Amino acid sequence: MSNRRTFAIISHPDAGKTTLTEKLLLQGGAIHLAGEVKARGAARRARSDWMKIEQQRGISVTSSVMTFERDGITFNLLDTPGHEDFSEDTYRTLTAVDSAVMVIDAAKGIEPQTRKLFEVCRLRSVPIITFVNKVDREGRDPFETLDEVADMLALDVSPQMWPIGMGGEFEGILDFATETVSRPEGPSREFLGKRDADAAIPERFADEIELARGGYPEFDLEAFRHGDLTPVYFGSALKNFGVTELIDAIARYAPPPRPQPAGEEQISPDRDEVTGFIFKVQANMDPNHRDRIAFMRQVSGTFKRGMKLTPSGLGKPIAVHSPILFFAQDRELADTAEAGDIIGIPNHGTLRVGDTLSERNQVRFTGLPNFAPEILRRVQLRDPTKTKQLRKALDDLSEEGVIQVFYPDIGAQHIVGVVGQLQLEVLISRLEAEYKVEAALEPSPFATARWIKGDAKALEEFASFNRANLARDRDGDFVFMAKSPWDVSYQVEKNPELTFSATKER
């Protein structure tokens, strides 16, 4: 397990995350065709964006898992949506990684979504490597970018390389550790040695580079792994600069599998028992087979194909006969897997996000919540004969975490809840493409929702007065549908014996 590196790539949309993902896969020998190669059809599209709407819009809307090997290290790369409307999927994905690469656009610096995702990493003390992308274009002063990372994210920054000029003046990237310069033309990496490197750097950049070498803290592995320091790499994913150094840094510095929280306990990766948790469910990755894959982050033990594991949500063991390792859509059967690996388990509704799988059924991993939706819509079915298909589709998509679905106590129309507007477009697109169900979304009278808990008598009394505002989620739990935040505050004050929660943890 010590040779596993399970990491995510996080960024604001358009910072170059998907391009960087492809170049890492190219460096790892997992693909032989990069996205910008002028090929036809599917070959030209980003390999990690396989869903129809992703290919149409050119954005990632679902997390992809890609496994590859390089120099004896197994890399499990989780590509996450950058768009804020898919923050739930990203949050759950970040529970399954041991480190993250934060991609920053050299011209724009830290953008709102980058900061939001960083805060999620900080909650879990996930170590972060920073990659400042697009340095071959006109951008901000690199010192300004570093100071912003240090100030806004309260992180020590330690540059490991430095751009020699930017935009029209770009002459390459100097790697401080190896004293090599990557040039835009000629040899891709030219070894110079410190004295020759200094001599080869145009005089107008010499002071800047000397300041970059000496003006920041040296890299400290312990501080990095505690989430207090970030090593910074500069490059261009599109032009393939700095990517080799980045993947070397992940191999050298990123932690191997870390212990995972299970209530008061921390489950160590060297525990003999096989344990893991489901952080994502994806239906219809292969539309021809209507398949449904649960993604499990293995936490401990050595998994063997055919093994029986007990899901916490089911209580009885299931045999895992066809575990899958992923390369985006491509997949292969896994005979064994170790702590840190991500394996796909085909199933028909047995496994759900938040489930723990274990041999003895004595462990429950924690920290995978659902969040209260910020947009609620009624679903209007165009063809009333497809009610059953709609229910199946909504159940599938809510299990994946694409939406949440609520069934009102009064009224027949289902209500869907999402965090961001773009999720609604994904819902309509996938209903049509994958389930052949045409539907429209109508305004709902509700603005937000809260899960309600309390003793049976208090719940029943509350329900008798608020039936028109009550629904059940797909687990059958009570949900209060509020018309405004004021409505929530009023009910909280009026019903002190009940709890109104904005999150629900499985």
List keywords for this structure.
alpha+beta, 13 helices, PrfC, translation release factor activity, codon nonspecific, RF3_dom_3_sf, 3 domains, 33 strands, globular, seven-stranded mixed β-sheet, Rossmann fold, eight-stranded antiparallel β-sheet, Alpha-Beta Plaits, 506 residues
Give the topology.
Blueprint: E1 4-11, H1 17-27, H2 52-57, E2 64-70, E3 73-79, H3 87-94, E4 99-105, H4 112-123, E5 128-133, H5 142-153, E6 156-159, E7 161-164, E8 172-175, E9 180-182, E10 190-191, H6 193-200, H7 203-214, H8 221-225, E11 229-234, H9 243-253, E12 260-262, E13 265-267, E14 275-283, E15 292-300, E16 303-304, E17 308-311, E18 318-319, E19 324-327, E20 330-333, E21 336-337, E22 342-346, E23 356-358, E24 369-371, E25 375-381, H10 387-400, E26 404-408, E27 415-418, H11 421-435, E28 439-443, E29 448-453, H12 456-465, E30 470-473, E31 478-482, H13 485-494, E32 499-501, E33 503-505
Parallel strand pairs: 1-3, 1-4, 4-5, 5-11, 6-11
Antiparallel strand pairs: 2-3, 7-8, 8-9, 9-10, 12-13, 14-15, 14-23, 15-22, 16-21, 17-18, 17-23, 19-20, 24-33, 25-27, 25-28, 26-27, 26-30, 29-31, 29-32, 30-31
